[in-house]
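Case study.
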Amino acid sequence: MNPSTLPAASAGADASLAGYSIDMGAERPLRLDCGVDLGPFTIAYQTHGRLNPEKSNAILICHALSGDQFVYAPHPITNKPGWWHMLVGPGRVLDTDRFFLICANVLGGCMGTTGPKEINPATGRSWGLSFPAITIGDMVRAQAMLLDYLGIDQLFCVIGGSMGGMQVLQWAALYPERVFAAIPIASSSRHSAQNIAFYEVGRQAIMADPDWCGGDYLAQGKNPHRGLAVARMAAHITYLSEMALDRKFGRARQDRKQFTPGFDAEFQVESYLRHQGSTFVDRFDANSYLYISRAMDYFDLAAEHDGVLANAFKGTKTRFCIISFSSDWLFPTSANRAVVHALNAAAANVSFVEVESDKGHDAFLLDEPEFQATLMGFLNGAAEHRGLPRSTTP
Amino acid sequence: MNPSTLPAASAGADASLAGYSIDMGAERPLRLDCGVDLGPFTIAYQTHGRLNPEKSNAILICHALSGDQFVYAPHPITNKPGWWHMLVGPGRVLDTDRFFLICANVLGGCMGTTGPKEINPATGRSWGLSFPAITIGDMVRAQAMLLDYLGIDQLFCVIGGSMGGMQVLQWAALYPERVFAAIPIASSSRHSAQNIAFYEVGRQAIMADPDWCGGDYLAQGKNPHRGLAVARMAAHITYLSEMALDRKFGRARQDRKQFTPGFDAEFQVESYLRHQGSTFVDRFDANSYLYISRAMDYFDLAAEHDGVLANAFKGTKTRFCIISFSSDWLFPTSANRAVVHALNAAAANVSFVEVESDKGHDAFLLDEPEFQATLMGFLNGAAEHRGLPRSTTP
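After joint prediction, the assembly is written out as follows.
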């Protein structure tokens, strides 16, 4: 591991916010699941709050497919608040007065961590499709190297939703002694055939765009933004419940005449989806989308343990809190409950809450009081067991 | 109406199979919902069986978005059996020994009926995006003109699934006296926001393809086959239930090594979807896909009747049989039941069956014994009331 830490971004007025990027794996490369040794490589991450002297108050936040390390600080490209800003901050669920929060861009990502858009030091050119296949396990092992560098032996908690929840489960399986508490949210131990199918449509949309150039678009000065936008639109539908779409948009029309020959957005839901697609391409890399969605498809925690999911958690002392949302059809309650059953079979300490919500998979990114209350209750209980101070907010 | 009937295809050995195309609307054009007068225009259709002397045994079969008039006879492009071949034939549910079956390519289609790929007689060029916006109502009024031409005052039955079911409902609402019995299957009186969203992704995929050429691809000798394939893939997922996908494919892989850098189809479900996409483009026109999917989005039978769906069926004497499939999430049982409630409110004669099936929306195209038994029972009862001979098969 290369000890040189490169401060990547300052957090403005709040000195407890900090963005870094660190080069690792030069001396001891990361052996990827595909057999390739990766190194040196870079991990870009943000921290919030302060690590206590015992180094016992660290929470690792794992982001989803389209997320990044900007969980709290404004996003440097969009200037929008971090994707979990409503959960993070002084006195909030992820209390920056009590906890030291770490969120790293995943391996294969496009916000500073090594991924297909970064330069391959061996060739001096963008990796593109020469970037090796990566897995959720690879992402987690890279994060573990970051924790080694930070000198944190055990995380108080690993938390994340969707693909972030997959990383939480992988963390608990790979490094049980390093995870005091684990909160996988709206997640699954494996992608279903339908999940794979939806992501395959997105990949096909990207690869059908001539500007994808066989993955070599950066070198050719192009960008498959149309294909990536379609991929994002297709995925975005799966993040929302039918009820949420009906409540938000129904069949409401844009303020225009009824029949348009040019197939402009006529219904509000179309306009909304197009906006989701067009803003996404400003901040995301198409090849990263291919690699990371593929990592989700590969994920199958039971398959790594002789087909028995409970074996992934054998003897674990980690305290688990599994959370699902009633209207999530991408990672439905049944998929989350399957993890609970496996944890029960492994005699693990596990809580399970299905939050009633009509907001679909996206609920984990939204202001859902029952969700926040569940997190607060579990974290307070776990903090007490860990000997951390309780929240000062009532 | 132009009386010249052009035999378009012979049905080989079986003289009861016949394909025709007829030019209509030259003298009395079809006034479309968008206000445009369309005429002359062509309707391509197939018939099976023979019309009885009383002209009381005609069944109009309405096809779905990706369907066409080849309901029984082999498809001229794919050479595959007609899309409802398991229901049609001597002694089958749609018994060619008893009934005279008519299936016409919808307005806006691409199998011979006037649509965006056909030549606009006024310009001598393909319509492309100059083709006027069409609605389910327009499709049905064009079919009614065909029946006028055939001299059929009243249909014994109108039947169809998905968009075909929308046409059935529209038939019953527009021409109650011409419909003795109506069977809308796996359908709805309106597209939900989620339905619109899924079709919008498909349209965006088509329009994102540079070979779409702003809709003018035929004139420019191109074909947006990549975009159309992605549209078909996205739609196809919605036709299948999660359970059906899991049962058919699960996480089974193609016979190849685990990690592929080029993002080839690795899981069987990917290969299946790609096949669905690539075969579809051989037989379908991208602009037709835009226009017809848009017609589905526009469909809102209640909105045409002061927002009260029951008003669409006020005083109807038609006998209805509504059929849904338990695992259909595109046109779920709830959407079908809403039609039943409206028919009940209109004091209509209505049967409702939710067929238990794990095959999703596509179940209406598959060999589902309970579905077939439901159809057979309803048609036999209705035939008796209409004074038609009962089935000779036990």
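Observations recorded in class. Residues 1-17 of chain A have pLDDT under 50 and may be disordered. Residues 255 and 266 of chain A are 8 Å apart (CA to CA). We will return to this complex in the next lecture.
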